Amino acid sequence: MKSTYIIGEIGQNHNGSVDIAKVIVDLVSRPVRDEAFGLELKPMDAVKMTKRDLSEELTDSQMNRPYDSPHSFGRTYGEHRAVLELDNDAHYDVYKHAKSKGLDFVETLCSLGCLSMLKLFTPDKLKVASRDLTNLPLLAAMAETKIPIILSTGMAGKKELDDALDVITRYHSDIAILHCVSQYPTHPDNLNLKSIAYLKKHYGQYPIGFSDHTIGISAPIVAVGMGAEIIEKHITIDRNMKGTDQQGSLGPDGVNRMIRDIRIAERWMGTEDIYIDPAVASAKVKLERSIASKKTLHPGDTITEEDIHLLSPGDGIKWVDKNLVVGHKVIAEIPANEIIYPNLID
Q1: Which CATH class is domain 278-344?
Q2: Domain extent listing, the chain
Q3: Rounded Cα distance, 179 and 39, in Å
Q4: How would CATH label the architecture of 5-269?
Q5: 259-287, pLDDT tens digit by residue?
Q6: pTM for the whole thing?
Q7: Are 209 and 231 in contact (CB under 8 A)?
Q8: Among 18, 124, 265, 344, whose Cα sits 20 to 30 Å from the Cα of 225?
């Protein structure tokens, strides 16, 4: 059974609060249990945060534009973004909290200036946001750290992906690639999960996964069935909180259900074979059919095919072996509609 690496993306759902970020960490580190079979399941593997350097984020005109939205935290977009940014020390604080809960910590770095964070701590993995797959100077600087890198393909075609890989592999090849669609939420017609199969076929030297922006938990489960080794999903403590990403994220119950279903799906996959599982042995005996008498058969009778049919239970002779019954003589009376066991015939 292969374990899927599940990342809970905090993103900006902390709303500028370290305490909220830590509560989200607590949420995803909770035990997960399947009640029907009493299974204790592996919780989420990692949380992810995002660091921006606002001096390298947008043009001045874009940063200064009015941002009139129910989800705005400031008068302009720049002011809004500033409220949502946690400084390096705050990220380090959340990192330590995640590690104390047994979680890996993944960091999305959005510009060269954000690499200053790495003076404080070393994330387990670095994430390249979809929009920065073509930011080759950033990719080179991130790759030079030799920290494992996860790429999202939400805005990329094959050329953009190949260019990014060409830059990173000059330094190392510890890379994972996530199929992604940068539409929030992603329309069902646009998800194209078969891209996972394409990536596994053409980039199979790397772990392939799925960064999900759909509503609900179904898409990650299907992705796991298609071979995704990594799942990333936005998470929050309350989908009704202020913030543009909150409604498209999973709340506490959704997080629990997604992790449960992914871990159960891992068990579903099994091996590439067809066989009779020991777990169905009792059902096989109870429900399968065996050769039985259509009428009362007396000692000395020679059994014909017209004398037999199939009834449960399945602990007798199967139709494929009817030659073991047809043409044989009865040695002990067999009532009508009873299984013809080997000890009743010659």
Answers
A1: alpha beta
A2: 5-269, 278-344
A3: 30
A4: Alpha-Beta Barrel (3.20)
A5: 999 999 999 988 888 888 888 889 999 99
A6: 0.88
A7: yes
A8: 124
